[in-house]
Amino acid sequence: MRPDSDQALPPVADTSTDRSGDIGxxxxxxSSGWGTAVLEEGDRVAFGRIRAxxxxxxxxxxxxxxxxxxxxxxxxxIRYASGARRFWTEGIKPFGPGCVVIGDTGxxxxxxxxxxxxxxxxxxxxxxxxxxxxxxxAAELSGIEGLAGARRIGVDAMTPGAARLFSAITPDATLVxxxxxxxxxxxxxxxxxxxxxxxxxxxxxxxxxxALFHLEPxxxxxxxxxxxxxxxxGLGVTNPDLEAxxxxxxxxxxxxxxxxxxxxxxxxxxxxFAGYQGTITRTWVNAGNGQRPTPANSSRKRLARRWxxxxxxxxxxxxxxxxxxxxLSAYAEAGExxxxxxxxxxxxxxxxxxxxxxxxxxDAGATTPFEPNMVLFVTGVVSDPxxxxxxxxxxxxxxxxGPEVLTRHSLGPLFDPVEP
Length: 420
Description:
Blueprint: H1 47-64, E1 69-72, H2 75-82, E2 99-102, E3 107-111, E4 127-128, H3 134-142, E5 152-155, H4 160-169, E6 174-177, H5 179-186, H6 191-213, E7 219-220, H7 221-234, E8 240-248, E9 258-259, E10 264-273, E11 276-285, H8 298-316, H9 324-334, E12 344-348, E13 350-356, E14 375-383, E15 389-397, E16 404-405
Helix pairs in contact: 3-4, 6-7, 8-9
């Protein structure tokens, strides 16, 4: 379900009247009230309302696209369909049928051996156990009401082994790629989803600030990564969107090693709250805690001014009705070359389309229209011939009245006014 094009976020409600977070519970507050007090079990984000809105949108899309069932394996898809809280895992995971959605019954089934983190509307009989035995898994899936008789099944990914498994369980079914349908559902954010993104972003910003306090000449980059993880855990968030990275620009860029004095340090921190992404990148001068760049760094000040001019153009391109091609044009108009990585990507349940950049095809999302309540992570990168680089990325919300920068962290000492 999409919010109105310029829907205002409701004020903080009296949370003493609702301790469940279910439908009709307390709404989200204004931006000054968001922070780490917004917990998944708390009141200020109505997670029950998020799940109910997702279910209505999901089953409506299934009916519109003729899907009798969905078989989902991607973390973001499962989170959207079920609202289940999952453990953090690292590394590449093969596709597995982690969630099955049945149109006729209106039920969501999860691959889980226990109910911790499973929303209350998903009962124990809607869980099927984890097993390495394909025959046991086939039997479990065959017992899901409505799956065996499905004729059109939407999937968000599929391996040859999983395809063979479902050909045995549902021999008359056609497996159809539903990833574009699922991405479309997630593109526009509700007020509760925006509050979750803002909370994730607040945690990432707090962790980055703590790491920057300890930034000093000679410190190992991995030490800063550990400081970020410790700070996030102290704020009650242990699921990173990505491992924090502190590195030097140029051919030697890496996340390990020590960070020398006066170096420009690329800082990247990301976390997940309730599945929603909060990411920030900054460029900081390793001059010791609280130190400003010296006059010898005037060329870096010029880089900072170039970044500011570029980002003003990028923000101007983030208008409702535009698309990712406008962001690429902003680089050209500023006379800056496109960076090797993304210029922008969608923010939501992890990284989402559109994915915009010189190295990405237009069908990755560059032609996707910008609509109110889309959230983008927009990156500005400027470099000098000697390799000196300033990079910073901001979360930006698209609104009817113009872009809203959600990131609140300082851009750093390079952007401080020059003292006389």
